[in-house]
Sequence to fold (426 residues):
Amino acid sequence: MLPTVSRAEGVYVYDTDGREYLDGCSGAINVNLGHTVPEITDRMHQQIDSVCFTYRTQFHSPALAGLTEHLARLAPGDLNQVQYCNSGSEAIETALRLATLYHATAYRPFQCVVLTEEPSYHGMTAGALAASGHPLRRKDLTPLLANQSTVARVRPRQGALRADAEDWEKAIAEVGPHNLSAVVIEPVGGAASGAVPTDPETLVRLRELADEHGFLLIADEVMSGLGRTGRWFGCDHAGVTPDVLVLGKGLSAGFMPIAAVVVSDRIAASFDAPLSGVLFGHTMAGAPLAVATAAAVLDYLERQSIPARAARAGERLAERLTGLTGQHRLITDVRGRGLQLALGVQSDPDRFPGTSLDLVEAARAEGLLLYPAGVTPLTESVMVAPPLTVSDEEMDELVQRLDRAITRTTQSPSGASSPLMTAHAR
Ligand SMILES: Cc1ncc(COP(=O)(O)O)c(C=O)c1O
Fold:
């Protein structure tokens, strides 16, 4: 049975039995500023007392225009147009719709294949799930995923965890670049690969190929965006500007559902109507309360120089985690950027009794929350991604609890079939 939550503060969550859990994975890697931040909740309260909802076709909102300006200032290049959504999945869905419409507008309806990587995860709605290189989550849903035939996949070579430039070039040639609508890529991997970054040369090459052949480069930064990787965006590590930047988790920081599709001026200008009229949207998209929350989140991120703090903290945490690999054979490696980190987990059941799910469970028993990752049997890992505001002392405490959890995992028989295990979404 799951524990019942009572309250949360900073990096800690407490259950109704008074047990304390150090949030080593920021909820679902979205509580980027920690739990209960008065600078943000005060502004939410002010908005609640003023107006929670107006519909975007009925009222102009200076707050929404301000949020768009702020995002445009932070995003690289000419990524200045924003369409709001309520979740990462919706935002990916919107980006796919945008790519299809972009080519249709230019009378290229055959240019409709979306190329994505396996492993990857882009969301649970039908289009986003079809695009996800995540066989476990797609399993048994094929009849619903009508657009399977317009999705192609690139796979890393044997032994590699992410596709490189050569793999992508080969996959693009196989699809036929003239058929390609968009490439969707996680610049820093999320839970599917277990935080494995795309190497910068691959992103640079994809940018060149997109320019050469006219397909769109969509960066899924739902997890990596807005400071998580130690830069504002995962793409910044390669100095690459995508055509479409998809943001989610970090924009809401866990306070209100909001996500965004940030589109280049060039792509937006190809339509003869504003993006909101072309793409349409969802009832609650861009509603005042969510907008006020995201505006408060962006102000906080900038005022507190959170990306730079995440870079420093990530370096320190990665070093401490690498120390654990020397002590425990269960842990194969440490990967990621900034505070989007993961431990590779040795999952051979003959040699080690533990798997990533066992480790997550053992960590919970030690008062530490971690996020299971990987697409078995492609990858097996556990994400370590505390709030970007985590202190040095809290990181030390995290590593101590993790150390004990790894020992506990290797010593106890596998509990992968316990009810708690099955509660974890993989
Ligand atoms: C990289 C990535 N894209 C998309 C999504 C989907 O976002 P949401 O769960 O908000 O729909 C996720 C969620 O984990 C994600 O990590």
Observations:
- The chain is about 40% helix and 15% strand.
- Residues 306-327 form the longest helix (22 residues).
- The radius of gyration is 21 Å.
